[in-house]
Amino acid sequence: MAKKRGTKSKIVSAAWKLFYEQGYDATTVDEIIKESGTSRGSFYHYFDGKDALVGSLAYLFDEKYEELIPEIDIEQNSTELLLFLNAKLFEMIENTVDLELMKRLYATQLLTKAEKQLLDHDRVYYRLLRKIIMAGQKNGYITTNESVNEIVKYYAFCERAILYDWCLVSGEYSLKEKGCKQMDFFLNKIKP
Predict the structure, then answer these.
(1) CB–CB of 88/71 below 8 Å?
(2) Tens-place pLDDT, residues 101-130
(3) 64 and 137 housed in the same domain
């Protein structure tokens, strides 16, 4: 099972790297297969075609969170930790994800009747947020007036809203800088 996830992850990472470097339209399935070091059969086992990869961006975000987990001390100030994670994610998006593809991701998530990856609560993203917020409530950094799940929903909502706005204005501001400012405002609302 781990090997299967590894193959899918390789395909997703290779695709998004190529999309960023040469654009979505200029990238072919054959180039994705070559870059990922996988096979045509593996590609089509996981994806119906190149368009199916647009919704996979959420998994790329999760890879970033998994990469950051070793740097996380769950006992540190939870609001600072959440701000750190947000800054790292927004920096990664700003530096490695084409703005037009972010717009396409939001469009596909709005139009699809299938699974909405951004809302999949089994993702690494949501599990990590729940863990941090739970520890934050236990250690007195985050209010207990709301449940862990409600605070996770608010946090994710704020991140999506900032990303959506950034897409609407075609990236006219630094996602990381504006995002940190907006998320800091939100995080001050969940302190006890």
Answers:
(1) no
(2) 788 777 766 665 555 566 666 788 899 999
(3) yes
Q: For 51-84, what is each residue's pLDDT tens digit?
A: 777 767 777 788 888 888 998 888 899 999 999 9
Q: How far is it, in rounded angstroms, from Cα 107 to Cα 55?
A: 10
Same structural domain, 66 and 1: no
Q: How many Å apart are CA 81 and CA 77, to the nearest integer? A: 6
- Kindly tell me if the per-residue pLDDT of 160 is higher than 60: yes
Structural tokens at position 183: 């998320």
Residues 91 and 40 in one domain: no
Q: What is the pLDDT of residue 15?
A: 85
Domain match, 72 and 4 both: no
- Nearest CA to 155 out of 184, 176, 112 is that of 184
